[in-house]
Specification:
homodimer; 602 residues; alpha/beta; TIM Barrel; 2 domains; three-stranded antiparallel sheet; 20 helices; 15 strands; globular; ThiC-associated_dom (chains A, B); S-adenosyl-L-methionine (chains A, B); 4Fe-4S (chains A, B); ThiC (chains A, B); EC 4.1.99.17 (chains A, B)
C-alpha cells in the first residue's frame, strides 16, 4: 500500500490575522474570521472579512491531516442529549470500488477513536427541528456572529440602497433571526452530527450569498492527496461548502480524508458511488444498494446529499428533442434506470424512507436538477420546469420530516430568462434556498465558462439565489486541477459579492470602499491585501514594475507618472483646497447657475 | 535609428475560411466574414461568424506591415466628389515627444504616396450627412451585408424571444435600415476619409453589440512593434474597434503604423498627445495646441476622438468628496487645467470649432465620461450625471454640424444601479449610442477586473449599450501585454454575445446551437473550432487527455467513460427510440396525467 503524502497549503493570507469572536448566549463558541491589517499611515482600522479557510490559515493551529481537525461541535451535539453512538456499518471493499479480495492501495483515515452517531429512535436531530421547537442552538449563534463579522449592533443602521427584490436582509443578524429563517425553511444549516469539525455556516437568501466548489476524482484523473489538497486550497480562496463529486476509485476513503479535514460542509451525490458499486451499469442500481450508500455516507458525516428525485419517468420524453439532452450525471443515470425498468424513479418512490434516514443524522437535501438545461436552446423548457414542480412537492414532504432542504437550479440560461427561474422557484418551492450552477449565459466559450457562468451567477444571486455552485475554466473539457479550482472560486466570490452589494447587504461595501481608498492613496500593498487574490494582484503589478520602490509610486505602468488620473486627481484636490472655497464663493456670486458663459478671453 | 521588426500573427483560425460576400447596390464591395467548417459526419453546413480579423487571417492576402493594408474605401470616397487632397500639416518633432533637434529612434511609416484628404469648404463629409440626405453609401451596404452575415432574407423570420427593452432589432438588416439608424443618430459608422483601409462597421443599439480593445504604450512600457502586434492580435480575437491610448514616446509614429495596418476603426484621446507636447504640465495646455493635435490626428485617419467636453468647471467640486476622485486620465487633466486657470473647460467653450474640424474628415465624437465613477461608492453620483446632461446638450450641437456622436459611460457601478445609467443616457442623449467601460460590479478583485466588469458589461449591453470597452486582468495594476489583450477581448466577446442573445438578436443563437450540438455528439474538434478560443479549449482538453484518439471519445476526464451524462443521455435516447413510442402510448392510455401513481411493485 502506498502511503499518500498529504501536502496542503497552510499559513495566513497576506497581512491577515485569524481571529475568533466569542458568543454571548454560548460564551464558549469561538467564531473564526480574519482581519486584514492596513498600513499605519492610512489611519484606518483593520478590515474584517468572512473567512472559510479554517485552521489552515491560522498560524496558531497545528495541522496534521492524518489526525483531522478538532471536533469543534462535539460537545454541542452531545449536550442536546438526543443522539447515540453505535458501531456503524462495516466498510466493504466495493465502497472503494474494489473486488472482494482486492487490497486497498491507499491508506485509510484512522477512525479507531470515532464511532458514528445517529438520532435516538423517533427523533429528528436536525437544525430545522430545533428551530421549529424554538431552540437557538450554538450553531445558530455561531452563524449570527459570523454573518455580522463580529460587529456590535450599530446605534444607527448604515444607509442601505440596494434592490433585493423582496428579500428581508436585516441590518444586524441575531441568533433569533437565524432560528426564524431556519424554522420557516428559508435557510439551512448543513451540519451532519457526524461532521463535528465544521465551522457552522448558513445558506439562505437573507444572508451573505455563498459559493460551492466541486472537487473529486474521475476514473481518468486525480488521487486522494490531490483531492484533499484541492479542498484545503478551495476554502483558502473562499469556498463556503465543497462537494466531493468523485466517480473514480477509492470514493469512500477519499471522502473520509476530506470530511475529517474539512471545516466547511461537504456535499455528495450518492448515486455516483451507488453506480460504482454496480460496476457502472445503471440498470443494476437498486433501492437497497442506494439506501446502504446513504447510510454509509451519513455515518461518515456528509452534510448534504444531491438527490435527483425529481427525474420522473413521465418527464423523460420531454427531453427527447433537446439539443443537449440530460446533462446532469445523476439525472442521466436515473433516466436510464427508469427506461430500462419502465418504472418510476426509485428515489421518488422511496422519498419518505430517504427522509427517515436523513433526519437521523441531519443530512440536508440538495434536491437535484437532473433535468436542468445544458445549452441555451434548452433553457426554461418543459422538462426543466416539470422537475422543479416536483421538487416543490418533495420539499413539503421533507419538511414534514423536519429534514432541511435546498433546491438545485440551472445550468445554461440566457440573461433574459434568468429572473423567471428565480420567480418560479420562489413560487413553487416554499422559499427553500436556491442553489444554482451558474447559469452560463452563452454556450460559445469553452475554456472561459467560469466567465460565461459568472455573469449569470451574479445576476441570479442578486435575484435571491442563496448559493452559487462554481464553474471552472475546465468545464466541458476536463477535470479541474488546483489552478482551475482557484480561478473558479475567485470568480464565484466576485459573483456572490457583486450580488451582496446589489442586494444592499449592510456589510458588503466595507471592503470595496477600503480597497478603493487604498487604491486612491497609492497604498499598493493595502490594495493587494484587501483584494480577493493578493498574490496575483501583486504579481501582475510587478510584471512591469517589480522594484520595491514602485510600491510607493503614485502611478503604475498603465499610465506612467504623468498620466495617472488618481495622481492628478490628488493634485486637483490639493490645488483646490484653497481655491475651492473661492470657487464656491465665485459660483454663488454669479448666481449659482450651472451654465456660466465664459467671459474671459482665451 | 533602429528598424522595428514587425512580427504579427497571421493565418486562419482553426477550420475557418475567410470569405467575401458581394453587395447588390454596390456589386464591387466584398464584405469580409468567415465560415467555420464542421466535420462531414455532422451533416451540418459551415457556420458563418462575424469576423474582425481583417486580411491577417486570410491566407490569400499578403501582409507587409511596411506597406499597410489595401485602401479598400478609396474609390468610394473619391466617387462622392466632395473631398480634396492637400499637403497636410508638417510633422513636428514634438508630435513624437522629441526635442527640436532630437533624432527619431524609430522608423516612420512611408507616406510618400499618401496625401491627406479633407472635405471641400462648406461640406460635411460624414456618414451622418449622407444618411440625412437620403444617400445609401457603399459603407452602409457593406454593413448591412456584414450584420446579416451574408444571409439571404428568410421567407419566415425565425421565432425570437428576447427582451430588448424597447430596441428595434430587425429580422434582416437592409442598407436602408442602416441609413435610417445613422440619420437619426441612433448609430454611427466610424470611418475617417483618411482611413480608407477599414472594413466598415456600425455601432448602434439595433445592431450586434460591439467591443473595443485598448492598446497603446505608456512612458513605462511597450514599443511600436508591440503595439502593432497588439492591434493585430486584438482583432484576431474579435475587437471591433481599437483605441490607441498611447501616452509615452513616439505617439504620432506609433499611431501611423497602427492606422495604416488596421482594418478596424481606431479611436484616440487627443488630449494625451497634447499633454505630451507641453511636457506633461496640464496648466500649459492651450486650445491652439489641442486644435493642431486634432488636425494632425484627423489627417492620419483617426476614426473617433474621445473628447472630455463635459468636464465642466462647476462640476469639479462635485468630485471633492468622492472616494476615488476623477479616474479618467483626460478628465483629471482637464480638471487640473480648469482649476489652474479658473476657467471653463476649453473643450466645452470651443466645441463648435471642434465640430467644424471633425465634419471635414468624418471623425466621430466619443463624448468622454471624464467624471465617471471609479469605485462602487461613487457610482451614479451628481458629478457623473451632471456631466451626462452636458454630453446630451453637446450631442445636439454636434448633430447640428452633421458630426457623428457616441456617448461614453461608466465605470464602477453595482448591478442594481446599472439600468438607471442606460435609462438616463437614453433620456438625455437623444438615443446616441452608448459606449461603456464595463462597468465593474465590485472593486474587490484587482487581477480579475475583466470578470468584475464582464458581468456589468453583459448587463448594460443587454439594456441597450452599443459598444463595450474591454477591461483586462491588468486593470488598476499595469499596462496589458498581448496575453492580457486576448483574455480581455474574449471576455468582452462573451459579454457582447450574451447581450445579443438576451436581446433576441436573430443571428445570435446559431453559434450556441451549433456548438452545443457538436458537444452533445462528441465532435470535439467542432466544439473547439466553434468556440471563441479554439486553441485554449483544445489545450485544456488535452491537459488530461492528449491522445489523438481522445478526440473521438464519448467522454472527457471530468467524468470518465462511465459517468459522462451526454454519453448516457445518448444511450437513453437510443434505448427509448423503440420504447418512447410505447411510453407515449402508455402515457396517453393512462389519461396523459403528469402525476402517475406508481402501481408497479418495487
Amino acid at each position: 500500500m502506498s502511503s499518500e503524502k498529504f501536502i496542503v497549503t497552510t499559513g495566513p493570507l497576506p497581512a491577515s490575522r485569524k481571529m475568533h469572536v466569542a458568543g454571548n448566549l454560548f460564551p464558549d463558541i469561538r467564531v473564526a474570521m480574519r482581519e486584514i491589517d492596513l498600513e499605519p499611515s492610512s489611519g484606518e482600522p483593520p478590515v474584517r472579512v468572512y473567512d472559510t479557510s479554517g485552521p489552515y490559515s491560522d498560524p496558531a493551529a497545528s495541522i496534521d491531516i492524518s489526525r483531522g481537525l478538532p471536533a469543534l461541535r462535539r460537545s454541542w451535539i452531545e449536550a442536546r442529549g438526543d443522539v447515540e453512538a453505535y458501531d456503524g456499518r462495516e466498510i466493504k471493499p466495493e465502497d472503494d470500488g474494489l473486488k472482494s479480495d482486492e487490497q486497498r492501495k491507499v491508506a485509510m483515515f484512522d477512525r479507531s477513536n470515532i464511532r458514528p452517531l445517529r438520532g435516538k429512535p423517533g427523533t429528528a436531530v436536525t437544525q430545522l427541528a430545533y428551530a421549529r421547537a424554538g431552540i437557538v442552538t450554538p450553531e445558530m449563534e455561531y452563524i449570527a456572529v459570523r454573518e455580522n463579522l463580529g460587529r456590535e449592533r450599530l446605534k444607527e443602521a448604515a444607509a442601505r440602497d440596494g434592490e433585493s427584490f423582496g428579500a428581508a436582509i436585516p441590518d444586524y443578524v441575531t441568533p433569533e433571526f437565524v432560528r426564524e429563517e431556519v424554522a420557516r425553511g428559508r435557510a439551512i444549516i448543513p451540519a451532519n452530527i457526524n461532521h463535528p469539525e465544521i465551522e457552522p455556516m448558513i445558506i439562505g437568501r437573507n444572508f451573505l450569498v455563498k459559493i460551492n466548489a466541486n472537487i473529486g476524482n474521475s476514473a481518468v484523473s486525480s488521487s486522494v492527496a490531490e483531492e484533499v489538497d484541492k479542498m484545503v486550497w478551495s476554502i483558502r480562496w473562499g469556498a463556503d461548502t465543497v462537494m466531493d463529486l468523485s466517480t473514480g476509485r477509492n470514493i469512500h476513503t477519499t471522502r473520509e480524508w476530506i470530511l475529517r479535514n474539512s471545516p466547511v460542509p461537504i456535499g455528495t451525490v450518492p448515486i455516483y458511488q451507488a453506480l460504482e458499486k454496480v460496476g457502472g451499469k445503471a440498470e443494476d442500481l437498486t433501492w437497497e444498494i442506494y439506501r446502504d450508500t446513504l447510510i454509509e455516507q451519513a455515518e461518515q458525516g456528509v452534510d448534504y446529499f444531491t438527490i435527483h428525485a425529481g427525474v420522473r419517468l413521465p418527464y423523460i420524453p420531454l427531453t427527447a428533442k433537446r439539443v443537449t439532452g440530460i446533462v446532469s450525471r445523476g439525472g442521466s443515470i436515473l433516466a436510464k434506470w427508469c427506461l430500462a425498468h419502465h418504472k418510476e424513479n426509485f428515489l421518488y418512490t422511496h422519498f419518505e424512507e430517504i427522509c427517515e434516514i436523513m433526519k437521523a443524522y441531519d443530512v440536508s437535501f440538495s434536491l437535484g436538477d437532473g433535468l436542468r438545461p445544458g445549452s441555451i436552446a434548452d433553457a426554461n423548457d418543459a422538462a426543466q420546469f416539470a422537475e422543479l414542480e416536483t421538487l416543490g412537492e418533495l420539499t413539503q414532504i421533507a419538511w414534514k420530516h423536519d429534514v432541511q432542504v435546498m433546491i438545485e437550479g440551472p445550468g445554461h440560461v440566457p440573461m433574459h430568462k434568468i429572473k423567471a427561474n428565480m420567480d418560479k422557484q420562489l413560487a413553487v418551492c416554499g422559499e427553500a434556498p436556491f442553489y444554482t450552477l451558474g447559469p452560463l449565459t452563452t454556450d460559445i466559450a469553452p475554456g472561459y465558462d467560469h466567465i460565461t457562468s459568472g455573469i449569470g451567477a451574479a445576476m441570479i444571486g442578486w435575484f435571491g439565489t442563496a448559493m452559487l455552485c462554481y464553474v471552472t475554466p475546465k468545464e466541458h473539457l476536463g477535470l479541474p486541477d488546483r489552478d482551475d479550482v482557484k480561478v473558479g472560486v475567485v470568480t464565484y466570490k466576485i459573483a456572490a459579492h457583486a450580488a451582496d452589494l446589489a442586494k444592499g447587504h449592510p456589510a458588503a461595501q466595507v471592503r470595496d470602499d477600503a480597497l478603493s481608498r487604498a487604491r486612491f492613496e497609492f497604498r499598493w500593498r493595502d490594495q493587494f491585501n484587501l483584494s480577493l487574490d493578493p498574490e496575483t494582484a501583486e504579481q501582475y503589478h510587478d510584471q512591469t514594475l517589480p522594484a520595491e520602490g514602485a510600491k510607493l509610486a503614485h502611478f503604475c505602468s498603465m499610465c506612467g507618472p504623468k498620466f495617472c488620473s488618481m495622481k492628478i486627481s490628488q493634485e486637483v484636490r490639493d490645488y483646490a483646497k484653497s481655491g475651492m472655497a473661492q470657487m464656491s464663493q465665485n459660483f454663488r456670486d454669479q448666481g449659482g447657475e450651472i451654465f456660466v458663459p465664459d467671459t474671459a478671453a482665451e
